[in-house]
Design goal:
The protein is α+β, with helices and mostly antiparallel strands and 173 residues long. 13% of the residues lie in helices and 32% in strands. It contains 2 helices and 10 strands; from the N terminus they run H-H-E-E-E-E-E-E-E-E-E-E.
Length: 173
């Protein structure tokens, strides 16, 4: 019979189960204490897009336009005595946005383009020059920052019937 060496019989100099468990426990404790949202970070919060009025209740400013004219018209829930925005994006920290897709129905000539803009902008500038302006793209996703928003529509050569009604609905992704 052969003699078994002490190196083979003895304990290995590798990791011991107690030491491995202790190091793993300390590492987990450090991660939980210093990274409570996880090592990859928290999932982004989900924002909401809401309106205080339905599309049918949006008010236009101006309330009517002259036949044959071109220009723009703003839409909000109300303009007097103060602006009540057409919709609000919230549930997110300032400077963050929701991704939303608009479905627009009835937006036909004489309308030319539809925009959203920061509801705090009460200037008489064109739709594309207003604060926070973004044209609503057909069938594409739009990034909308937290805050209050109104609509602005550009129109060309209005007929005798005036401006047609339209509706906008949003799907937040």
């Amino acid at each position: 019979m052969r003699k078994v060496s002490k190196l083979v019989r003895g304990t290995s100099k590798g990791a011991r189960p107690g030491v491995v468990f202790s190091v793993a426990s300390i590492l987990i404790l450090v991660l939980v204490l210093f990274f409570p949202e996880g090592i990859l970070g928290a999932r982004p919060p989900h924002g909401t897009l809401t309106s205080l009025c339905e599309n049918a209740n949006l008010k236009s400013d101006p309330a009517s336009v002259v036949p044959g004219s071109s220009g723009e018209v703003r839409f909000a829930c109300d303009f007097t005595p103060s602006v009540v925005p057409a919709f609000t994006v919230d549930g997110l920290p300032p400077g963050h946005f929701v991704k939303a897709q608009a479905t627009v129905n009835g937006f036909v000539a004489p309308y030319a383009s539809l925009w959203i803009y920061d509801a705090r902008d009460n200037t008489a500038r064109p739709c594309g020059d207003r604060d926070g302006h973004a044209q609503i793209p057909s069938g594409k996703t739009l990034k909308i920052l937290t805050g209050d928003w109104n609509y602005c529509a550009e129109f060309l050569n209005v007929g005798q019937a005036g401006l047609p009604t339209f509706s906008v609905s949003w799907t937040v992704s």
